[in-house]
Hints:
heterodimer, A: alpha/beta, Uracil-DNA Glycosylase, subunit E, 3 domains, elongated, disordered N terminus, B: 424 residues, alpha/beta, 2 domains
Amino acid sequence: MRQASLFDSGDARDTTRETTRDTTRDITKDNSTDQSLPWQHSHTNLNEHQSVSFYPDFSSWYSAALHCLQAKLPPGAAWWSEDRTTKQITRKNTVRIQPEFQQKAHAASCHSGSDRWALLYSLLWRLHHTEPQLMELAGDPEVAKLHRYAKAVSRDVHKMKAFVRFRKVEDEIPRYVAWFEPQHFIIEYAAPFFKRRFANMHWSILSPVGCAHWEAGGELWFSDAVEQRFAPAADQFEDAWRVYYKSIFNPARLKTTAMQSEMPKKYWKNLPEAQEIPSLVASAQSRTREMIAQQKDQDTLRCGRRPSSPDQQIVQQLQQVTPVSLQSLQLQASLCQDCPQGDVATQTVFGNGPENARIMIVGEQPGDQEDLHGKPFVGPAGKVLRAALMRAGIEAEDCYLTNAVKHFGFVPRGKKRIHKRPEASVVSVCGQWLKQEMELVNPEVVIYLGTTAATTAFGSQVKIQRDRGRLIAKDGRQHLITIHPSSVLRIPRGPAQQKAYLGFINDLKLSVSFAEVVE
Amino acid sequence: MNTIEKLAILADAAKYDASCASSGSSKRNSLSSHGIGSTEGSGICHAYAPDGRCISLLKVLLTNFCIYECAYCINRNSSNTQRARFSVDEVVNLTLDFYRRNYIEGLFLSSGVIRNPDYTMEQLVEVARSLREDHDFRGYIHLKTIPDADGELLTNAGKYADRLSINVELPSQVALENLAPEKSHRTIKLSMARIRARRQETVAEQTRQKIISNLTPKKNTAPKFAPAGQSTQMIIGAEPSSDVSILQMSTHLYASYELKRVYYSAFSPIEDAPTTLPSVSAPLVREHRLYQSDWLMRFYGFNASELVSEEQGGMLDLQIDPKLSWALRHRHHFPVDLNTASREMLLRVPGLGVKTITKILKIRRWQSIKLSDLIALRASVKRALPFIVCTGYKPIEADYSSERLRAMFVPPPEQQQQQLQLAL
């Protein structure tokens, strides 16, 4: 089997660069103590043209370039000559070069442009000697070219990641083999991606500029370029892939230019699915016409009984609960759309707590967190309230917590929702629920947090600072006005905040003393 | 029916979901695992269909049997389409076989609703579980969430999937009631809220563990929940909602549920469609303009009402892109001086993108901006010229009346004709 010889580790491996590297004398290292460069004739003048030979990969070029840099060989004087016979081992570099340049340069070094080494050295020289800010000057012709080269390479790599199509070769150990034709010298540069992705497979990517191989562990290894005939010609499974490709295509939205800009024709010959394109395009219009012609009214169900709508389900639940109860009220409120806030909020955040609670606490409206969780006072202000209640000697669990408005009102801003104070009309419409809650729970004390809540009982004349902190008898129960805990959060940390918090606690304590008197 | 025959039916049934993203998840690979797969941030499109859409994931339905009756959907209860159902193993094996050959980045699994939402969701989660736990699959998984499914199932879905999504389907509740009576924005939003809440909890837990592990060096073991976030899709042009209401809906969804993306899918006719639907497609260019606007809202600081002019009845200009359209309606802000303007203002200049602007700001720290810089940066200079001033360049007022500019950028009639044809 002709293919096998390529992939069997034995002989093939001996020709790889990994091994040549071991046997090569490390010239760079041997001469590192010497002042003259190993590839220079020792008596040449540095100002004349110098031929710098190096193995054409980034790390070899880089160590050679750093040598030249230290030896002050100006960019115009260096002639970069590729030498594929020797590969130097990269030395630990002593010159600090910006990582951004290193990254771009590594990518650009895989470009097929023959001027790439000279370009990179010129940039390195300028960065090191004259213009440390060079990488920020994206408009500089050389920097722009570096970016262009790096981008072309990264695009090529991206296409390789996308368009490599492995074909399974059944052997003792199954091997996945692909043929890919890159535009630049990217095989070694891109191979680690495939290693990380297909770590437990045996695979080979063959190409006209070199081949990469992986044996489900160990090290990536590389071999010389081969012809396409060494790659397997087919994989039975490709039929399934073609079926998928045909089926996922929507003939009603033919857009072949968009397809070709991302999947240029030059790649088609190695993509098994691409052979379907002409017939898919040709039949698209007639298929769409047929679809439209088929339009008709159909009332026969083919998949069983239809379920009732989500709202109908709530109505059904309503019939199963006690008619006048918090539970029934909550179900009714969950469908409420009587104000515009109901449209944008997630859900009705109904009151929560024991039906026979002696203390009822009314806030303004649910916030972001309450809207997500569907429970009142679970956000930051809720935390302040719960802590304050504890300090005041009140069990939060024993209180009925609710809000004047049951839907979160907000202004969207990017990824956040900014709280918006509810308009009077909203408060008034939503009052229907609070009124019924009040009747059902029938608390001894009602605590109103902030202006919006207080207006529900005392109208728009309420002034928090004037009316807070005293029990007001009305409609057969006690009412207590205090600040909203979120106002404590708006004060910057410090004594002022502490004072506001303690004031809040003191107000809350009044309700306890009243409850105790009653007992 | 064999697996390939089922694949033909269930991929065909899945093609109306636009999303094919495979990006933005947590970084991982299969080194030191016994499986295959990796996600490294950016997504990869492995192929493109002749409809111009990318093929990144194996996008299939588990089954196209469905008890719901959504008028716009080929799989609705009363549809005469051929039905099939994959077993869990069939989907798992297809995914792995496709993945090994480098056809796909992973799986995007959705389903018609069978029996009830919980049962359906359970089946979807089981496929994801099997891929992750039985096969140690490290590739990308996107699960469609069935609204109204149980919270516990959602937790598991987020544990195995990179991305979860629920489609809002249509931009208004009224339209949804008419066309998809079994669905409701109320329950769809509830599911989105639950996903966001779970993600928040996970992030909080991870932060907590990070603090602990800094004290005692131990690996962060907090489980991730849908690391690539959630997304949704709206069908455009199946009912009369305006562009501005669509964009406002998106604005609210992005702000409320930390959505990664809202996808817009121009309505296209389906086989065996009910007569309540239009029999022509919505123009694809409208979909395109909505995507452009969406982008401008998320990355360029525009808001929905700025992008749509009132004179046009809440619709976007189909002939020119929304940024240019805004610039033509607000000539008093221009020309903008590239050497002094704020980032916010530069973002409003037609022809300049986010990356270009970042580079301009960097160059500006060292030297003044010239036209040659813009050319080197490969900005669309022609588009920007009427709107900018820089060192050595100033637009000549007379050359650039708004009408003239508009005429300059509107594609010639034959190209428009082509666009229309594409739309059909």
